Amino acid sequence: MRGQELLTFVVYDIGDDRVRVRVANACKDYGLERIQYSAFCGPLEAARRSELFARLADTLGRGVGKILVLPVCEKDAQARREILNEAADEAAGG
């Protein structure tokens, strides 16, 4: 398991716009993909996950908010299900 990448979710609820943008940028810097307005996911090894968590903790500081970093094992990641309904004009390209 050492060095194995696990699907990692980062979900946050932060009121301060500047801090929220910095958290989103940190997630992007680590290669995570935005899946909701305040949620990202992507594969991360344990060391990178720890680095990201430390960066997010520094970014939030003593400000009000909550950040959840959740690694998911391969079996559970494969069992993931998604429903995506797009608006008619988006699905048609425009």
Description of the molecule:
This protein is of the alpha+beta class and 94 residues long. It has a single domain (6-91), classed as Alpha-Beta Plaits (2-Layer Sandwich). 39% of the residues lie in helices and 29% in strands. It has helices spanning 17-29, 46-60, 74-78, 88-91; strands spanning 6-14, 33-36, 39-44, 65-72. It has a 4-stranded antiparallel beta sheet. Helix 1 runs antiparallel to helix 2 (46-60). The longest helix has 15 residues, at 46-60. It is globular and about 40 Å long. The model has no long low-confidence stretch (mean pLDDT 91).
Do you know the CATH architecture? Answer: 2-Layer Sandwich
User: What Rg do the Cα atoms give?
Assistant: 15 Å
How many individual helices?
4
Fraction in beta strands: 25-35%
Kindly report the spatial arrangement of strands forming the biggest sheet: 2-3-1-4
**Oligomerization status of the protein chains:** single chain
Amino- and carboxy-terminal Cα gap: 44 Å
Coarse shape: globular
CATH class: Alpha Beta
Count of individual domains: 1
Low-confidence stretches: none
Instruction: State the total count of DSSP E strands.
Output: 4
Estimate the helix proportion, in percent. 25-40%
Could you tell me the CATH topology label: Alpha-Beta Plaits
By secondary-structure content and strand pairing, the structural class works out as alpha+beta
Q: What are the secondary-structure elements, in order, as H or E?
A: EHEEHEHH
Average pLDDT: 91
